[in-house]
Amino acid sequence: MRIPPKTPEVRVPRLVGLMAVDAREAARARGVRLAAPDRPDFSRTVVDYVVRQYPPPGAEIPRGAVVTVWFDLGEGEGGGGSGVREPRVPGAPHGGIRRELTTPEPAPKAPPQMSALSSP
């Protein structure tokens, strides 16, 4: 087991993509602590994968500082099937403004005029 050097600052390890158990070990080896706000049972979490972390990998932080990690939702957790939706532009409210926004009917076409140069 490698003991981290006793320096005042350490570099944050890359934790994204690691399982919880491996993320805890990598953090301990670098001399930082982990927090997981979306996992109250983080100390018992084993196979969930880290999907986000803060501060980012490579940032220098004081030894013993906290790195926050977030995990992918497991089977049957959250979700809800809402997915990504395109933005919708709200329409005008019902009433007078809607009438003003309707497209007017096109004006009738004027009959073609004869020019003075076209007469025989």
Describe the structure.
This protein has 120 residues and is an alpha+beta fold. It contains 2 helices and 5 strands. The strands form 2 sheets. It has a 3-stranded mixed beta sheet with strand order 2-5-3, with helices on one face. A two-stranded antiparallel sheet has the order 1-4. The relative contact order is 0.18. The model has no long low-confidence stretch (mean pLDDT 78).
Derived structural class: alpha+beta
Biggest β-sheet strands, sense, barrel = 3 strands, mixed
Radius of gyration: 32 Å
Number of strands: 5
Shape: elongated
Low-confidence regions: none
Please identify the oligomeric state.
single chain
| Element order: H for helix, E for strand | EHEEEEH
What proportion of the residues form beta strands (DSSP E)? Answer: 15-25%
- Helix run count: 2
Residues in helices, as a percent range: 10-25%
Mean pLDDT: 78
Distance between the termini: 109 Å
Strand order of the largest sheet: 2-5-3
List keywords for this structure.
single chain, 120 residues, alpha+beta, three-stranded mixed β-sheet, two-stranded antiparallel sheet, 2 helices, 5 strands
Could you give a short description of this structure?
The chain is built from 2 helices and 5 strands. It is of the alpha+beta class.
